[in-house]
## 1
Amino acid sequence: MNRRIALYVLIALTVLGFTDVKYGWSDMFAAPQQPFQVEGFDRAAIPPRDPAAIHTGSLQADLAPGEMVKIRNSIGNINITGADTNEVDLSYTIRVYANDQALAEEYLSGLKLDAVSSEGGLEIDLIKPGSRPKMISRVEIDIQGSLPNTAKVDLDNSMGDVHLADIAGPSHIKNQYGDASIKGVKGNLTVHAPFGGIEIEDVNGTLVSSGNYGSTDVKNIIGDVSIDSDFCAIHAKEITGSLSVKSSYSEATVENIDGNLTSETRFSTFTGRDIIGEVKTYSTYGRIHLEYISGDMVVDTKHSDVDVILGAFDHNLSLEANQGGIILKGELAGLKPVTSGETRTLEQVLGRGTHNVQITTVLGSISVK
C-alpha cells in the first residue's frame, strides 16, 4: 500500500513539473510587476479591489413638508436621517473601479450626482456621460446626510446597505442585495429586500415587508404588519395591530400582538406568544408552537406537529389528529381522546368555553397543556 501511494505521489509531482515548465505556474506565487500571461489570460482583466478614482461632493436643496425624495442608486451604501429642517443636505462619494487609472479618472470627470425638482418632490440620480467603457468594472456611490423629517422616501438601491431613520410615510424602500435598517417612520412603510436582512423599528402606520435569505426583525409597530419571507429567520414583537406572516424554509417567532394573527408556513417552525386577537395558522411540513392566545384559534396542519399552551382555561376545545396522536398535559392529562380507525379526536369545554380552539392535523401530533 505504501509503495502504491509513493508511486501516485511521484506521478503527480512529475505531472506538476512538466506543467510548471510549460506554463510557469510557480511564478504565480511571486509578486509580478507586469501583467502575466497564462494561456492567453491577462491579469489586467481581473477586477481591481481598490478604486482607481474617487470623487466627493454634496447636494443641498429645499423641500416642502410632505414632499418625497426619490433616490436611485446601483451600488453603494445609503445612510440618511430625518431632521427638523426644510433642507435636503447630502454628501456623496463616487468610486470608479478600473485597472487603468487614467481611464477611471476621465470617466469619473463626467459623473455627477444631481438633484432635480419634480412634481411632488425631488429626484436624486447619477448623471452619466454616456455608455460605460468596458474597462470600467464598476461604479459605487455612497450617500449620507439628512433630509426633513416630514419627507417621504422612495429609494431603489441595487447593492449595498441602507440605513434610514426619522422619515415620513408612505415611504417605499427597495434594496436588492444588502441589508435594510429603517427606524422611526410616521406613516405607512413598504420594504423589499430580496437578498438581505431587514430591521424595522418604530413605525406609526401599516408595514409591508418582504425579503429572503437573511433575517427579518420587526419591532414596535403601531399598525397592521405583513411579512413575506423565505429562507429567513423572522422575529416580530410589540405590534399594535394585526400581523400576517407567510414563509417557507424559515424559523419565525412573533409575540406581543394586540390584533389578530394569521400565518401560512411551509417547511418552517412557527412560534406565537401573547396574542390578544384571533389566531389562524396553517402549516405544511413544520412545527407550530402557540402560547397564551386570548382569542379564538384555528390551526390546520399537514405533516406538522402542534404544541399549544392555553393558559387560563376558558375554551371550547376541538382536536383532531388523522394518522397522528393527541397528547394532553398538566390538568388536561386525565382527558381521553376518542379513537376511530386512524383518527383521534377530543371535544371538551374548559371553563365557560368562551374561546373556540380548533386544531386539526394530518400525519402529525397535537400537544395541549
## 2
Amino acid sequence: MASPAPASMAELGSARADAWYSGLSESQQWQLYAIAKRTRNWAEVVQAARDNFQLEAEVSRSGFYRWRDKMRQADAEQRRLAVVAAQAEAASLARENGISDEAAINALKALAIDAAMSDNSSEALKWANAAMAIKDRQQKDAELKLKSARQKTADDQLRLAREKFEAAERRENAAKGAIADTKLTDAERMAKLKEIYGI
C-alpha cells in the first residue's frame, strides 16, 4: 500500500536539479518510498525506480538515504496531520451527536482494530491516536478538577483559620478591655471574662 502523499512537493523540500530523484514525479517518489519501507536493500529500490520509472541517473548510497530521510520526515508530518484531522473530526462528531467520550473512544478503537485487521496501519494509527487524544483530554480534565478541588479545600482551610484567628483576636481585645475597665468590680470583671471565653 502506497504511503499518503503530502499536499505538495514543498513539504519534501526543493530537490536540487542534479538530485537523482529530480526527474521523478511526486506520485512516483511516494510509490518508491512505499517500496523503500518494505526493504532494507537500497539497491533494490533503485532498481525498482529504473524498472518502473525509467530512472537513468546514478544513485549513490548516501544520496538514496538522504532522499529516504526526507521522505520519512514528510510521511511522519502527513501522519501527524492525519491524526490531528481525525481528532478534530471525532470531537466534532461527538459534540454534534451528543456522544459521550467513552462511546467515542470505543468507536475509534473499533475503527483502529478494523483498519489493523485490513492491514491498513496508517488508518489504524490515525484512529488509535484519536482515541488516545480523547483519553488524554479526559485525564487532563480530571487532573484540573482535582487541582481545583484541592485549591478550594486549601482556600476553605485558610478562610477557617483566618476566622478562628479573628475570633481569638476579638476575644483577646474584649478581655483586655474588661481587665482595663476600672468601673467593673472584681466579680463583674470575672463574670465578663467568663462570658468572653465561654466558660
